[in-house]
Specification:
Elements (H helix, E strand, L loop, with lengths): L12 H8 L3 H15 L6 H7 L3 E6 L4 E7 L4 E3 L8 E5 L1 H8 L5 H6 L4 E4 L1 H13 L12 H8 L1 H6 L14
Parallel strand pairs: 1-4
Antiparallel strand pairs: 1-2, 2-3, 4-5
Length: 174
């Protein structure tokens, strides 16, 4: 990775408790919409075939939320929570952000037990290798803060509003 990742951060327990009360399905729909925009068209045909009908769960441990979905042949689709998914990938929110920013290597997180894959390990390696092979832009969470989105959609309004600070663990490092 290009930069030194920040020290591990865990969401405060009250935040996780509040997030755990949210319904799961809307979050899964939002995640698959993002994955479909960013990844679906880039997946090789052999990966698409192997993902067909497989149940995947992304579990954010410290936020106490899970996102469940499947590949329907043309796109990822949100699904009801899976009691036993084919593949469950678990980590804290910060670790998922670091992975998306490509500031942390998944193997390092895995060997440090910060990233856990349960279920079909062959499917897990397929997903990991497919993501590693894709040339995707690095996720910059600062681009998606409410203020940044407002600045793109209504710049005059955004200029009049105070800019809240971005949490340190979300900031890109040079």
């Amino acid at each position: 990775m290009h930069t030194t990742p920040p020290a591990p951060y865990t969401l405060p327990r009250p935040v996780g408790a509040a997030l755990a009360r949210l319904p799961a399905y809307p979050g899964s729909r939002l995640l698959v919409a993002a994955i479909n925009l960013a990844l679906a068209r880039h997946l090789p045909d052999d990966v698409r075939t192997l993902l067909q009908g497989r149940k995947i769960s992304i579990r954010v441990r410290d936020a106490r939320v899970a996102f469940d979905f499947t590949w329907d042949g043309t796109r990822f689709a949100a699904s009801r929570p899976h009691a036993t998914p084919d593949l469950a990938i678990s980590a804290n929110a910060q670790d998922f952000v670091l992975l998306a920013q490509r500031r942390q290597d998944p193997d390092t997180l895995f060997f440090n037990r910060r990233l856990v894959m349960e279920g079909d390990t062959e499917l897990g390696l397929l997903v990991k290798n497919a993501l590693d092979a894709l040339e995707l832009p690095v996720l910059d969470p600062a681009h998606w803060t409410p203020h940044a989105v407002l600045a793109r959609r209504a710049p005059r309004l955004a200029q009049r509003l105070p800019l809240p600070p971005l949490p340190a663990f979300l900031r890109q490092q040079p």
